[in-house]
Amino acid sequence: MAQNQQPSFNFNADDVWAAACQAQRINGSYVKLTMISESDPSLTKLSNRMLVMQLLADPFNITDEDREQGKKVRAFYQALTFKILQGKHLNEFDNNAMVLSNRDVISSNYDLAVICSLPSCYQRGVVRQSVDQRISFATGGFIGAVGNKVSLAIEVLRSVYSQKWMTTYITGITSDDQVVFFAYKEALEVGKMFDIYGTVKSHRDNSTQLNRVKVIV
Fold first, then answer.
1. Please, which contacts does 22-28 make with residues 24 or more away whose CB atoms are closer than 8 Å?
2. pTM for this structure?
3. How does DSSP classify residue 3?
4. Which residue from 10, 88, 131, 186 could staple onto 83, CB 3.0 to 4.6 Å apart?
5. Which of these CATH numbers, 2.40.50.140, 2.102.10.10, 3.10.50.40, 2.30.30.240, describes 149-216?
6. Residue 146 near residue 202, CB atoms below 8 Å
7. End-to-end CA distance of the chain
């Protein structure tokens, strides 16, 4: 065996995806490196990858619940294939995840490590997909006319800070299914309702852009 050659293995892909989901459930998040507490061993947390390797050593310890979740996560990334068929471009990470999701056997350390991280990415991806769908399929139309001052109650869907412009861009939706977009001085918590006051700046892409927005406390 060459000096730098890694030990070989061939794991069933379904087992790997299921084990990755079980590790995510056990840790409650993606833990890249094992965290050892010398003062309190009970606080030691194994990395997701180490948990996955332990589970793959005896796949009978993988629960049915996690096998079902593994299928969901794998299918989520397999579905990215349809985006390519529609002519859409995938970033490098999503493209790699898609390729891995279509493999029946996992035989490299790198591929195993990537899959260990994907249940966590899946959770964020589902939330992002849900937000995108709510924005795309909003049926409330535009709010007011340009120049109108409006008072609204919105649910915050996105709150993204721009380092370049040193401001936070907020996307929200009203109970009438109308999408609004505006810049604000600070972040607003996603999922929460806020009463706002602002001026209609423009209408575009099925959303109403506001400026001079104030959050009414």
1. 22/51, 22/52, 22/55, 22/62, 22/63, 22/66, 23/48, 23/49, 23/51, 23/52, 23/55, 23/116, 23/119, 24/48, 24/119, 24/120, 25/66, 25/69, 26/51, 27/51
2. 0.67
3. T
4. 88
5. 2.40.50.140
6. yes
7. 68
Residue type, 204: R
> What percentage of the chain carries pLDDT values higher than 90?
72
5-30 pLDDT, tens per residue? Answer: 555 789 999 999 999 999 999 999 99
pLDDT digits (tens, 9 = 90+) for 87-103: 888 889 999 999 999 99
Q: Name the segment(s) of the chain with CATH classification 2.40.50.140.
A: 149-216
